[in-house]
Amino acid sequence: MSHKLNQILSALADPTRREILMMLLEDDMAVTDIADPFDMSLAAISKHLIVLANAGLIAQERRG
Question: What does pTM read for this prediction?
Answer without folding.
Answer: 0.89
